[in-house]
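Checklist before submission:
- one chain only
- standard amino acids only
- sequence pasted in full

Submission:
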Amino acid sequence: MAVNARKIAVYALVVFVLYVIITDPAKAADYVQVVFEGISDAAKAIGEFMTWVAHGGKS
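Returned file contents:
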């Protein structure tokens, strides 16, 4: 039962993404940019944290 729910959720997400891309490509591009900026910021924060840890946790 859980597998079917997961498949339905994935199909619904794919349909929604395609709908947004087809109906408003500029807005879809904005969404992609926001997602990649978020990923980039998260990676930068993790890198800064690891550098802080490597230096013994000193500020």
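Reviewer check: The radius of gyration is 19 Å.
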